[in-house]
Amino acid sequence: MLNFAHQEHIHSYYYASKNLDIIRPHLDKPLSADVCVIGAGFGGLSAALELAEKGKQVIVLEGARIGFGASGRSGGQAINGFEDGIDQYIKRFGLDITRQLWEMSLEAINIIDERITKYDIRCDWKKGYATVALNSRRMDDLIAIERASRETFDYPNMQLWDKNQLKRHLGSDIYVGGLYDSNSGHLHPLNYCLGLAKACLDAGVRIFEQSPVVDIRRRGNQVTLVTDKARVTAQNAVIAANAYITKTAKSVHRGTARKILPVESFIIATEPLDQATADSLINNGMSVCDNNLLLDYYRLSADNRLLFGSDSSADKDMIRIMRKNMLNVFPQLEATKIEYGWVGPIDMTMNARPYFGRIAPNIFFAHGYSGHGVALTGLAGRIIAEAICGDDRRLRVFETLKIPSLYGGKWVKNLALKIGIPYYKFLDKYR
Ligand SMILES: Cc1cc2nc3c(=O)[nH]c(=O)nc-3n(C[C@H](O)[C@H](O)[C@H](O)COP(=O)(O)OP(=O)(O)OC[C@H]3O[C@@H](n4cnc5c(N)ncnc54)[C@H](O)[C@@H]3O)c2cc1C
């Protein structure tokens, strides 16, 4: 699943409904630039766009296709905050660091607003998002998050909903309540990614597809990124390879892959629903995610399909399993056809905190968004661009979030996932 070199886009609802065709050549001769970015997902394109706007010459090297990775496959939910509730950050890092992180997470949503307007990106961006709880203990977690964001940060956009309030908008009986956030939202991720790529190209960024980076060499102030056919020499490199970093050579990931555990997530898309059925599921346009460890997330697409995702371990018959998960939430869809199903890697870190930093003074990276990458990638691109342009204050805040490593290579990670998924299922049921 994680192989990327020279791959084409996967077959998904997003690919079938993309509204831009961008095909870029592969790199076949040596070039130079101020900055060379690895990866044409949200993260790499965001860094490239910010840098081009600051007057830098930028080259993006993508091993497959623009939006081939998680960015072109995701649930599309742009959620503020981090995977761990903000109350957990206050306990662990204190108020000052948490305040800075919280404000940056709000900025991450604003970046999406700004870019969609500035570059006229057509990606069905819609505000409104609810985290829903399956039992009263999970509801207590939501109550703690709401209290921390309101009392500590005066955040006005969250509303706690009990079961009845939630049921006014969501046609499912299985939840005890939810936390609605009118500022978070959702979008068509592949169209957003292609829109970012177009904005990059218009700003003078050179993007090469089918150009996997196989080696990074650093000499003095220069970095050379070697692809399978040519090379780019630059003052700075940005690695935005995300979960795919675990499939790159050590000379590319330089130890960062040890912190990333790719967890498979699956999405199905139903046939288009008639308006009355769509409204009976979700009637206010919001996207929804539960707060289990292995979670379900869903929303309606612009053409009224239910897009339903779950984190799980791979199984040959994923569509059947996903359909069962969907019917657990919406039994009324028993007769509805499933038209698409696809999979992608969620870039988890061991403690679910984002992993941004540098491996050398001129080699930067942003990985491990842990389920919040739709929003946080925009921010990561911006703060890495700031650091490259001489102001690394905001990057240093992220560098204080220590991320544990998982040693032992691929088989240890596979084992961690094999043990971890049933363990998480157990915790979701009984904690
Ligand atoms: C099924 C699914 C559902 C998700 N749902 C959500 C959601 O609802 N909300 C949310 O916030 N997040 C979600 N995520 C996570 C989110 O999509 C990611 O965090 C985000 O897209 C990461 O963007 P990125 O640019 O860092 O990585 P990617 O989009 O994965 O891009 C990395 C790119 O780097 C390229 N690459 C890797 N190595 C090399 C190399 N050596 N040389 C050249 N190119 C290379 C890859 O081909 C790839 O295109 C989901 C992910 C999946 C898979």
UniProtKB/TrEMBL annotation:
<dbReference type="InterPro" id="IPR036188">
    <property type="entry name" value="FAD/NAD-bd_sf"/>
</dbReference>
<protein>
    <submittedName>
        <fullName>FAD-binding oxidoreductase</fullName>
    </submittedName>
</protein>
<dbReference type="Pfam" id="PF01266">
    <property type="entry name" value="DAO"/>
</dbReference>
<keyword id="KW-0560">Oxidoreductase</keyword>
<feature type="domain" description="FAD dependent oxidoreductase">
    <location>
        <begin position="34"/>
        <end position="386"/>
    </location>
</feature>
<dbReference type="InterPro" id="IPR006076">
    <property type="entry name" value="FAD-dep_OxRdtase"/>
</dbReference>
